[in-house]
Amino acid sequence: MLKTSMTELFGIKHPIMLAGMNWITEPDLVAAVSNAGGLGILAVARCTPEETREVIRETRKLTDKPFGINQILIGANAKENIQVAIEEQVPVINYSLGKPWFIDQVHAYGGKVVGTIAIAKHAANAAKLGCDALVITGHEAAAHGDAATSLVLIPVVASQVNIPLIAAGGFYDGRGLAAALALGADGVSMGTRFIVTKESNVHENYKELVVKASEQDTLYSHVFDGMNGRVLRTRAAQQMMNKGFPLFEAFKGAKEVKDQMRLSYPQFIGMSLKMLGKEDEGYMPWIMARQAVGTRRHLMAITKGDIDEGILFAGQNVGGINDIPSVNEVIERTVTEAEEVLDKLQKTRV
Ligand SMILES: Cc1cc2nc3c(=O)[nH]c(=O)nc-3n(C[C@H](O)[C@H](O)[C@H](O)COP(=O)(O)O)c2cc1C
């Protein structure tokens, strides 16, 4: 058993978190991770507030263990979804991309707030605001890591903040977990590893492509959804890298955003102009249009298994992911291997 400030804070058995992944970390997968002793995180950015309440309640039917929600704080429904999670007293509220306004409300019912950051300066700010723990995302990660790799980012953040740290980006086994602990983290968050499990709802084509991929088979760019992020090297991803962003698709994407948010054209244009004034906060409608394109292509891959036209967010750790085990197997073998590594390292001391 590994006891860390992460397991203590959340009241969980193992220092392993399921990274929140929009469209993927749905109730079954979340409950499987929590039931196996980790911390399952339900991604609700795709949800309306009503759907958020539904998936929270569905998860509660599947597990009586602690779990959390993940919400990207920019974009539609963020405020409302967070409010629903607070009303439902979800034990852990994990946010990314934005400033949390709800920390006191979550603490009032005994919940914990976990910020996700990829830059050390943001970690210090989030700790000052009152976050209980932080997910620190390295460059290796699927989707949106920044410039610094986990090897550099974890110790830099660990030197600056004094709350539990959960390392994300590149982790998939016990050696990684032991290394994260050595670097100053208190546990790991795994995304790509849990995508490729029996319980994950992702299309088998996606899973098999990850299993076949080497550590060289990812691309990192802003062309996929408007923010720097990492995807598998597929034909569509390579084409987007070579040709730049598909303009026509972006306009379609912008319309999809407008429809999703149930806005009229004047409202959409008004909102866009307002958002343009907040360009530095990443709220630009252009970014939202790009996100819509990314989401569309992402869904083609995860639901239809279209690995030619679809985009598959995945981390560099695809190179070490070679099978499709159950969630329980992933967690048990990660912990066992980490314990073995720590024992072996202990023996190197003379
Ligand atoms: C398909 C996919 C969807 C994601 N969606 C979200 C999301 O909705 N919110 C978020 O904070 N992070 C999201 N992420 C990032 C993950 O939470 C996590 O940081 C990343 O998967 C960790 O890297 P790893 O895949 O190397 O383990 C997503 C990642 C993937 C692969």
Structure in words:
Helices cover 47% and strands 13% of the residues. It contains 15 helices and ten strands. The chain starts with a helix and ends with a helix. The protein has two domains: 5-200 and 323-347, TIM Barrel, CATH 3.20.20.70; 214-313, no CATH class. It has 350 residues and is an alpha/beta fold. The protein binds flavin mononucleotide (FMN). Flavin mononucleotide is lined by residues 19-22, 24, 43, 45, 70, 72, 96, 116, 137, 140-143, 168-171, 190-193, 313, 315, 317.
Q: TL;DR?
A:
This protein is of the alpha/beta class and 350 residues long.
| Helix/sheet category | alpha/beta
Our measurement of the CA-to-CA distance between the termini, rounded to an integer number of angstroms, reads: 25 Å
Q: Which geometry do the CA atoms define?
A: globular
Q: Mean pLDDT across all residues, rounded?
A: 91
Biggest sheet overview: 8 strands, parallel
What is the spatial order of strands in the main beta sheet? 1-8-7-6-5-4-3-2
Radius of gyration: 19 Å
What count of domains describes the coordinates?
2
